[in-house]
Amino acid sequence: MKTIRLGDEAPNFTANSTEGEINFHEWLGEGWGVLFSHPADYTPVCTTELGTVAKYKDAFAQRNVKVVALSVDGIDSHHGWIKDINETQNTSVNFPIIADEDKKVATLYDMIHPNADNNLTVRSVFVIGNDKKVKLTLTYPASTGRNFDELLRVIDSLQLTAYQKVATPANWNNGDDCVIVPSVSNEQIPELFPKGHTEIKPYLRMTPQPNK
Ligand code: BEZ
Question: Would you call 178 a catalytic residue per the annotation?
């Protein structure tokens, strides 16, 4: 097991899931991906998380992002629990859940943090770009459900900044003004940012979001 860092290639694996065997890189195809782990099936916070992700299917698809969940429970457990998620969260789980009983993927992605729990995966999130590189990692404890609006917000920033010479400031949301990256000279600004810019300090230059 090696720590996965931003910019690393997402390790490939083959695993059994509720939608059949998945070769991760093939499954990602040319798009973006989210791989996220949860501690265990039939647990309350996880039930709300997976129900929420199912409801966000269109939001992920609009961003060309496929989502796959993982826990160390087995396929039969996953299928039974999906019925509960659908019933209690008023949705229909529409993404695969990996059954990582032998902890192969959890180990590959360092999703088990022994000082938190020796057997269960923590709440890890990996966002993988269409170049198969890791763009974001998040780790939450079992006791705190994740904010999937925040995940979409970060994906919007990642996909914007992958193609435009901007960065996104604190609390940015899609459509808000962006920061011009320091490597852009003032001379380059008119061509790169024809909507204009505001220089608050020489190192703090704002521009309307270029792709809006
Ligand atoms: C939950 O998903 O509710 C949960 C899972 C493991 C530990 C604590 C809570």
Answer: no
Q: What pTM value is reported for the model?
A: 0.96
Q: Whose CA is nearest to atom 7 of ligand 1?
A: 142
Residue pair 36/140 in contact (Cβ under 8 Å)? The answer is no
Active-site residue identified among 46, 69, 99, 134:
46
Adjacency order of strands within the sheet including 65-71:
20-23, 14-17, 97-99, 65-71, 32-37, 123-128, 134-140
- Taking Cα atoms as reference points, which of 202, 176, 205 lies closest to residue 193? 205
The CATH H-level (homologous superfamily) assignment of domain 14-147 is Glutaredoxin (3.40.30.10)
Domain chopping of the chain, boundaries: 14-147, 164-207
pLDDT at 2: 75
